[in-house]
Amino acid sequence: MKTEVISTVEQPEKGALRGAALIKKGELVAFPTETVYGLGADGLNGQAVNKIFEAKGRPNDNPLILHVAEKSAVRALWKETPPLAEILTDTFWPGPLTLIYNRSAAVPNEVTAGLDTVAVRMPDNPTALALIRASETPIAAPSANLSGRPSPTTAEHVLLDMEGRIPLLLNGGPCRFGVESTVLSLVDKPTILRPGAVTKEMLEAVIGPVALSGSILSPLLAGEKALSPGMKYKHYAPKAQVIVVSGEAAACAGRILELYDKMEAQGHICEIAATVQTIAYYQGKRCSLMGDRENPATLCANLFSLLREMDKRADVILSEGVEATGAGLAFMNRLLRAAGFCIERV
Ligand code: TXA
Ligand code: MG
Questions:
Q1: In what order do the strands lie in the sheet with 270-275?
Q2: Rounded to the nearest whole angstrom, what is the distance from the C-alpha of residue 17 to the centroid of ligand 1?
Q3: For 61-84, how does the pLDDT look when each residue is reduced to its tens digit (9 = 90+)?
Q4: If you measure from the C-alpha of residue 82 to the centroid of ligand 2, how many angstroms do you get, rounded to a whole number?
């Protein structure tokens, strides 16, 4: 299969119409969102949804998010509307917040992997919204990477993983946030299953106390049940070994330099993911700027593309860790998974 690429940077509508024609035929279309690129299919067509799992090599017990283009479209997908949903959608939609609640009969089993609940979000991206509207159906979409690889934040990343596996890619340029949406379950008390750009603090300002699922910063214990099935799989992993050193900036930099020299002496090729606070320490070493420790959203925005880039040059990636609050929680959640939880605190 040849993968057609249409740029939607200037005119989302034209590409969206071509995409919608494929979605309506039960085919797959990769498209940009404000978080990462998605791999979309008609979310009410179980056979079309199955093609997503095939193209990604995704385990079929891992449910998908339905993407809508109007806030009101969620009503047909949930059994009833939970009390907190309205204020959350009014505040954060369109945007990087996915809400989970009991599903309606309209949602096929293929989307929910047999669960009684369904995840829904309204993306904040002109191409995504135009595609969903023209398709006249909710679009089921996971991130458009091969299962286990870092999520794609540019059309080039999507092509590297998906070329020849899908008929169409809509290229809307790089994604703004760079990490996937916050996933919030409203089934019982509000609980974050996956942190993202809509932070715990932002949610609490609107709805009061929000719980964090236990496995956000630690691996699942043997026998522990994943609240969000996606959390149990190895994720976001480059081929290189990722080592995280967490702590105050200067201490992190000192330890990273020690590890760099030690591992290079052992024959490894290392690269450091640096921050504006520490890059001066790494002069003469292989390193790339990831962002600003004081503004972890900048670290999120670059993390996945930097992991892919550094993976081409190094077999050991040394990264600083930051405090897991605000946007730092989403950053540490993705980084620790990419590192297989290999972290040293200094
Ligand atoms: O930003 C995003 O959310 C991107 C863009 C494309 O929208 N999508 C995305 O999808 O990250 P995916 O499939 O890579 O991640 C969805 C996560 C998985 O961890 C999955 O297990 C969880 O949401 N999930 C989906 N439905 C669920 C449900 N009913 N209950 C619990 N977890 C669910
Ligand atoms: Mg994913």
A1: 287-291, 270-275, 316-321, 241-246, 343-345
A2: 25
A3: 999 999 999 999 999 999 999 999
A4: 26
